[in-house]
Write a structure and sequence with these properties.
- Residues 1-21 are annotated as: Disordered.
- This protein has a three-stranded antiparallel sheet with strand order 3-5-4. A two-stranded antiparallel sheet has the order 1-2.
- Helices cover 57% and strands 4% of the residues.
- It has two domains: 44-266; 281-339, Arc Repressor Mutant, subunit A (Orthogonal Bundle).
- It is built from 13 helices and five strands.
């Protein structure tokens, strides 16, 4: 189930066209240089890369805590990117458009297929409250979405217990490494490790919703948290951290945070345009459509929105596209999909 947004009534004034009063803080030039430099790991210590990753996450935290009206669309757009990368790493041919189609153009209750389920896994992370994501019930569901159907309850229970220990007893760096190691020990691989690491970070920082980050990192090594030989550091909580693997994960976290910040700035500009033209809309339930566009990655004209027929919704999308407030995301003459 995808959670739907709360009412925008408390944001009624911006809906009438006033732009956001909170300016978008630019990423400092030194941080962009440091994140780019962190891709070359040779000769760098774990502490050096951890400092860059921490600064990048700090900048991302400032965006998250603004709790903008477009944050739902932002998280879901990042979920789509993570699903596309995950599908490619799994050897699948579906790219972003095909993943969207699998979910949006499938009738409710029908199977969205293996690729569509990957998108549902990352949407689950982006839309459900972060505090609920690591329950045994939710873990079992997301593992099925990642394609692990034959896991027994004991494996899920053990994984949930290990994640609880990481959440309360590990430092931030070892928590990141430990999430990948826990996924690998259970045979779930790096995509699940990335999902778990993103959730643990959100819970550690007190975010209401997790942000899909590491899943979108194509350069993330297939066994980034596994020892590659040479000395390892055993932490106070017993997690054995390989230096090179840990540096790789931290560098990926920094890149992902910067990518998410840049996407937030792009979507903020598009959302401000949508909110600016909202008063010009005369269609019934137009406010509800604007609300959904700010929450979802994309919508189709057959979407069930109270007070709107399919024909009326299609006409509204055409009007919004003419005003430059939304984009048609497929380039197709039929089965069209719209979003920020």
């Amino acid at each position: 189930m995808i959670l739907r947004p709360k009412s925008l009534s408390r944001h009624h004034a911006p809906l009438a066209g006033a732009p956001s009063t909170v300016p978008t803080a630019p990423v400092p030039a030194w941080l962009r240089r440091a994140v780019a430099d962190a891709q070359n790991l040779a000769g760098k210590e774990v502490a050096d890369i951890a400092l860059v990753a921490g600064a990048a996450i700090g900048a991302l935290d400032a965006v998250v805590r603004r709790d903008e009206k477009w944050a739902g669309a932002w998280r879901q757009r990042l979920a789509l990117a993570a699903a596309a990368t995950t599908a490619k790493q799994a050897g699948r041919v579906e790219e972003s458009l095909a993943l969207r189609d699998a979910v949006l153009l499938t009738k409710p209750g029908d199977d969205v297929g293996p690729a569509g389920r990957l998108l549902l896994a990352w949407r689950r992370l982006a839309t459900r409250p972060a505090e609920e994501l690591l329950t045994e019930k939710n873990l079992a569901a997301v593992l099925e979405e990642f394609g692990f159907f034959a896991r027994d309850g004991e494996v899920v229970s053990d994984l949930a217990g290990e994640l609880r220990q990481l959440a309360v007893g590990a430092g931030t760096v070892e928590m990141l490494t430990g999430a990948f190691m826990a996924a690998e020990r259970c045979g779930f691989g790096r995509a699940v490790g990335a999902w778990l690491a993103d959730v643990l970070l959100a819970q550690r920082l007190g975010w209401a919703h997790a942000i899909p980050l590491l899943g979108g990192e194509a350069a993330l090594g297939s066994h980034a948290s596994r020892r590659r030989g040479g000395p390892a550091l055993v932490t106070a909580t017993g997690i054995e951290m390989d230096g090179e693997g840990t540096k790789e994960l931290l560098a990926a976290r920094a890149r992902a945070a910067l990518r998410a910040i840049d996407l937030s700035a792009e979507l903020e500009r598009r959302a401000d345009k949508l909110l600016a033209v909202a008063p010009k809309l005369r269609a019934k339930a137009a406010d509800a459509v604007v609300e959904r566009l700010l929450f979802d990655d994309a919508l189709v004209a057959s979407e069930k929105i109270t007070g709107m027929s399919e024909r009326g919704l299609r006409r509204l999308f055409d009007r919004l596209q003419t005003l430059g407030a939304v984009r048609e995301l497929t380039g197709r003459p039929t089965f069209r999909i719209y979003g920020l």
